[in-house]
Fold this sequence. Notes:
Oligomer: heterodimer
Helix content of chain A: over 70%
Number of strands of chain B: 0
Structural class of chain B: mainly alpha
Distance between the termini of chain B: 20 Å
Number of helices of chain B: 12
Number of strands of chain A: 0
Helix content of chain B: over 70%
Strand content of chain A: under 5%
Largest sheet of chain A: none
Order of helices and strands of chain A: HHHHHHHHHHH
Shape of chain B: elongated
Amino acid sequence: MARMTTTAGTLLALGEDSRYDRSVELARRIFMSCFPILLILILWDQVTCVRGSVCVGHPMTTPFLLPNPVIVAERIWSDTTSGDLVLNIGLTLYRAFLGFAVAAVAGVALGILIARNNWVHWFFDPIISVGFPMPKVAFLPIFMLWFGLYDTSKIALVIFDAMFPVVTATIAAVQGVDRYTLWSARMLGATDRRILWEILVPAAFPTIMTGMQIALPISLIVTIVCEMIMGGPGLGGSMIAASRFADSPGVFAGILEIAIAGFCVVKGMAMVRKRILIWHQEAEEPTTV
Amino acid sequence: MTAQAELESGLEPIAERGALARGFVRYLPLLILAATWEFAARTGIVSQLALPTLSSVIEAWFELLVPSNPSPGLTMSAGGAIAWVGWLLSGDLVTNGLDSLWRLSLGLGMAIVVGTVIGVLMAWYRPLDALLNPIVQVFYPMPKSALIPVTVLWLGFGHWSKIVLIFIGCMLPVTLSAYNGARGTEQFLVWSARSMGASRRSTLFEVVLPSALPDLLNGIRTALALSFILMVSSELIVARSGLGYMIGWLGDGGVYDAMFAVTLSVAALGFAADRGYLMFVKRVLSWRE
């Protein structure tokens, strides 16, 4: 590692062949960010070593409490080849994304209405301020009672839960739009509709996007909790089934699958934000749940 | 009065009246919602199987609050008072609620302490940053509810699986906010402190920590909301006591008015915790204004 940095340093000093220089720098950064993860994997392997693998010491846990990473990887591989993984991930993402999409569209519309209309503001303001900090997962049994055990209840709870961050972000965003811009547009004779589409929505979009970036992980969490409680196919359901059968490789495979899915979804959203908001300087990621 | 303030006061004509009337008008929509609920359920527009009347929910709440065993008689002695307190604490709602709150506060407390220490140390020592930052970045977007089956495998159905779940789940938001807050410390403040002869240690405690505090307190608010979600969902999935467990078994048993009562209690607890925390933050950060 030390040698790599010095190479990069000399190249920088030489100032030659900047493309090569950049690729070395990139390789160094990738190595630096993968190294701790590799370290964890090696530690995990060594702590749980199985017969036949290379290990230094004695296994410190039982395979039940912490199965070896190789066994978990084999499990993920067999899930992939049997098609279970694709089905489970597909179902989970379908529920999460559908709920999220409805929550995003409805949340932005409601937020704009609340910010622009006094009566709507009066009616929804206390509901939002009371509802926002509530743990909405507690309403799951009520949703099961109303919408049954299948997709509808899960998606409905995702919508209910993911809508609050979008609505609050939209209200803050629309109220934060520069008033002089609005006044100028109105003075120049813009109609309400044009003000909405050409000023309010673009100007409020970065903050709305932040709200959506908070709502997306929430919709994943809620989907997985719903699946765990109701069972059936889906990442959460298959994990809780594995847990009930004391099948710990299945549980740990589930954790890894969910972690990877969550990571990809969140990073994907951040990339979308960067692309859409390329004109906007603020690219900071919001803190999410 | 600036133009903007004038406009805002014009938008809220309600703000001119007395505080009590203002509060009433502000929270009137909640009363309207409650009245609509009672009306819809009582007239049978919505089946009472799906939506028990609000009055029966309130009645069920009191039934859960009051213990089923007979109360100790009226005696005017210290022993009598203790017996009364013990009796009042033996109701279903109170015992399960205390179980839940105990798990939540222990898990969240540990998460705040450990998370803050790790976050500030990460910002303070570069090697630790290089080691831990990739790990935090990878695990941060993971839906924390995925850990529920693992904590159950490790620690069983009792208190500790929930406490550890809340601890692990809430630690990362606290760590990340402490890290961001500490890194956001203005470099000039650190340099000034150092140039005036402050030791590294006192710079850490008297410059970096206070300036990290606003970010940190924000992260703790996220963690507080998350801890309620994790508490309820883990208790709904596998538990032997707790508010989430109560919601689950009341729903399974078809006692819907009691289930609504417990759900609303959880929601109210989450709301009260958030509001109380905001008041605390306002007090702690009063030096900022």
